[in-house]
Please model this.
Amino acid sequence: MTTSYHDYKQDFYHAFRAGIFAGVGYNVQSNKEHGEGRSDIVIINEYEGKVAVLR
Model:
């Protein structure tokens, strides 16, 4: 799980969702800067080659 300095302003619910997905083995990026903006949570399933972006 990777985090950003933006995580310090997030509430408990955001950290809970990121923790759930990281706990079951997904690669989770939280508040990662992408291009001109940032997504809340990016969940990557490297085994199946799938990605989910939560904003």
Remarks:
- Strands lie at 27-30, 33-34, 37-38, 41-45, 50-54.
- The first helix runs from residue 12 to 23.
- The mean pLDDT is 77.
